[in-house]
Structures are given as C-alpha cells and as structure tokens.
Amino acid sequence: MQTDTIPRLVISLLAMGIVGCASGPVIGRVSVAGQEAAPLTMSWESGLFGGSGTMAAVMPDGERFSGTYTVVKKGMSRGRIDPAWEGAEPADARGEIDDSMWGAARDRGAFVSAHLNKAIATLKGDRGSTMLCRFSLEAAEAGMRGGGAGSCQTSKGAKISAKF
C-alpha cells in the first residue's frame, strides 16, 4: 500500500507546481513632473492558479514598494478589492493618486465591469507612499504570466507605464 502512495504524492506535487506559482519582471518607466522619465525595477509572483499574487517595485529614488495584486473576476467578493480602490483608506494615503484609481471601486458592480479580467495591485512603500496599478492582461485566464501592460500611480505623484 505504501509503495503506491509515494508515486501518487510525487505526481500530485508536480501537478501543483505546474498549475501555480510563476514569476517575472515588469519593464517600467517612471514619470514625475519636472524630471526626466527613468526606469523602474518591478516584479511579480503569482499565487496558486495565478488569480492573485505579490508585486514589488523599486523607484529610481530608492523607495521600495511591496504588495498584492488580484485579477478582477465576476462575482468577486468585496474583501478581494483593497480598501484604497474603494477610497476607504485615510486621505493622506491617497496623496496625488487620481479618481481613475483611488476610490474607483466605490460602485463595486461598475468597477468589476470596467476592470473585468484586469489585474489591480496595491503596493505600500517603505517611506509611507502608496502605489496603485492597473494592468490589461493579454490572456486573463493565465493571469500575469500571460503578459500584459498597464499603469501605476503613486501618492507622491509619480506616473508609471509598465509592460510584462
């Protein structure tokens, strides 16, 4: 009986590795008023099945951001949308992030329709800044590993264009 269990366990673990967890770089450019555009170091790592995961970024000034992303799906629960997208975080966290991102999910139904099969991310900086990102996915069912492009904004006024 035990000799049959080990091969099944190995096959199950291999299948889980194929289905989940991918990672990759994001090629980005940061624009700040009055400064030349500069490159941004950014990366993502998906969780199991690719519908959500983590992201990290380092701004040209050295501020480090980390946070999570999720792919917007029909019927997703309110808890899956970060409070910043609902405008429910303190006003000082918003800074210069515009209404196209900050508070865009106040009307959850309209937000889900407008962002269906897109990835949204909320990252927090080690100097107190907030970054919100929105990505159009080339293959929504593949999540971030299918590639895509989008934009981010920080509470300090930086605008970021990104491709992965």
Number of strands: 8
| CA-CA gap between termini | 47 Å
Residue share in helix: 10-25%
Question: What does the largest sheet look like?
Answer: 8 strands, antiparallel, barrel
Give the neighbour order of strands across the main sheet: 1-2-3-4-5-6-7-8
Mean pLDDT: 88
Secondary-structure element order, N to C: HEEEEHHEEEE
| Tally of domains | 1
Under CATH, the topology can be stated as Porin
Explain what you see:
With 164 residues, the chain is α+β, with helices and mostly antiparallel strands. It has 3 helices and 8 strands. The model is unreliable at 12-19 (pLDDT under 50).
Key features?
37% strand, alpha+beta, 164 residues, eight-stranded antiparallel barrel
Task: Give a quick precis of the structure.
The chain is α+β, with helices and mostly antiparallel strands. The chain is 18% helix and 37% strand.
